[in-house]
Amino acid sequence: MLIDSFTVGPWQTNCYLFGTGGQCVVIDAGVGAYQPIMAALRQRNLALAGVIATHGHIDHIADAARLANEAGVPMYWHSADDYMMTRPSAGLGAMSAPLMVQLFGADALPKAQQSVDLRSAQRVELAGLGFDVVETPGHTPGSVILTSDFGDGPVALTGDTIFAGSVGRTDLPGGDPTVLDQTLRHLLGLIDDATGLLPGHGPATTMAVERRHNQFLLAASR
Q1: What is the pTM (predicted TM-score) of this model?
Q2: Mapped to the 3 state alphabet, what secondary structure does the chain carry?
């Protein structure tokens, strides 16, 4: 079940905490997520069981490896995004390197000491919950959606693949609009209308709403 969520950093990234029984998993620990996550763990007396990234952009992973390493737990991401996990500018373009230095002191992030590669049809069991991994390339080669059912209905953590009314951009290194369109076609047949969508940015929505009103999904359905 959802324990807490935060909107953090200059890119206003949604970070989610899920779990049961005193354990939790963090999804998309982006820029500025470390302090609110640590505060939530202390206040709720939670143990961190793992850290998952829906993709490798800096605004979704900036504090992820630090959290995982300090807790001695694995970090989960899709290996197709390996190229940007420790060098953020690789996912944003060479011109972004000075910005990374300005924001973080270096164009570098710590390496996760333990890592797990996410693949489709894989089920990740963490913190008393199960997450099914769906590969959703297009925004990045290693983008994934995580689906689960917590008893109140199905939920999908969509990262930057689907937003309320939009989708992730495809003009950064590794992005591909044709591949994203193929991904959206696949998701239209895979995700039920009753599924709640928790995106990497912006408000929550449902697949029913996006199927009717999201112009990118409408185009993919034709």
Answers
A1: 0.96
A2: CEEEEEEECCCCEEEEEECCCCEEEEECCCCCCHHHHHHHHHHHCCEEEEEECCCCCHHHHCCHHHHHHHHCCCEEECHHHHHHCCCCHHHHCHHHHHHHHHHHCCCCCCCCCCEEECCCCCEEEECCEEEEEEECCCCCCCCEEEEEECCCCEEEEEECCEECCEECCCCCCCCCHHHHHHHHHHHHHHCCCCCEEEECCCCCEEHHHHHHHCHHHHHHCC
* Contacts of residue 178, Cβ cutoff 8 Å, sequence gap at least 6: none
Q: How far apart are CA 55 and CA 82, in angstroms?
A: 10
Q: Which of 201, 161, 163, 205 is nearest to 185 (CA)?
A: 161
pLDDT in tens, 139-149: 999 999 999 99
Query: What residues does each domain of the chain span?
Result: 2-220
The 10s digit of each residue's pLDDT in 21-31 is 999 999 999 99
CATH class in words for 2-220: alpha beta
